[in-house]
Amino acid sequence: MFATGSAALVAWGRKHRSSPTDRHFTRAFAVVLLMLQLGMQVHALTPARWNIEGSLPLHLSDLAGLATAFALWSRRRWAFALTYYWGLALSTQALVAPVLQGPDFPHPGFLVFWGTHLLVVWEAIYLTWGLGLRPTWHSYRVAVAITSCWAIAAFVFNTLTGTNYGFLNRKPETGSLLDVLGPWPWYLIPEITLILAAWALMTLPWTRRETTVHT
């Protein structure tokens, strides 16, 4: 599904790039993603589901869905930057090692979890390789700055409430890449280093291409 959907969106984006069809399709996709994200959030805040440990939209994946929907609707550069870096480097981790404890397929919770994460990654691919939006070093700095502000706020909130949004205060109970990075809090250092390096490598090909063209 992931590979087929990615290829189809890239082909569609290239075929209809800068056309009215492209704009209508992109905004419709934004509405679908936003409704799915908001529906999941409202469900998490109902009295039967409420718990401070997981109901608040403070995980980066929650914010990634909102940023992606806004990027699709507006195509603002900062929103695209978050979609590109968060979607391709972080939301993909949920596809490889999902932190999901609950009913299996076809339970709605299972479908919504996979649906929201797949859509974010798909739309990052669609905007970049389908519609031709490109990250720059300014995009990199924007993503690092916004992510740093989120990390500080989430860490402080976790410390005050005993929660673990962003897995900044302890590892998730399910297996993840963090298991090979050492104990808390030391795993935060290689995690941050890996993210910064990965984002830089994700920026370099586009900026090298621009430099070559200008030369």
Give a written overview of the molecule.
With about 220 residues, the protein is mostly helical. It is built from seven helices and no strands. It has helices at about 1-15, 20-45, 60-75, 75-95, 110-130, 135-160, 190-215. It is globular, with a radius of gyration of 18 Å. The model has no long low-confidence stretch (mean pLDDT about 85).
What is the strand and helix layout of this fold?
Elements: H1 2-16, H2 20-45, H3 60-74, H4 77-96, H5 108-130, H6 137-161, H7 188-214
Helix pairs in contact: 1-5, 2-3, 2-5, 3-4, 3-5, 4-5, 4-6
> How would you describe the shape?
globular
- Percentage of residues in DSSP E strands: under 5%
Count of helices? 7
Biggest beta sheet attributes: none
Helix content: over 70%
Give, in order, the helices and strands. HHHHHHH
Structural class: mainly alpha
> N- to C-terminal separation?
40 Å
- Strand tally is 0
Q: Which value, in Å, is the CA radius of gyration? A: 18 Å
Identify the notable features of this structure and list them briefly.
215 residues, 7 helices
Short structural summary:
With about 220 residues, the chain is mostly helical. It has helices at about 1-15, 20-45, 60-75, 75-95, 110-130, 135-160, 190-215. Helix 3 (about 60-75) crosses helix 4, helix 3 (about 60-75) packs across helix 5 (about 110-130) and helix 4 crosses helix 6.
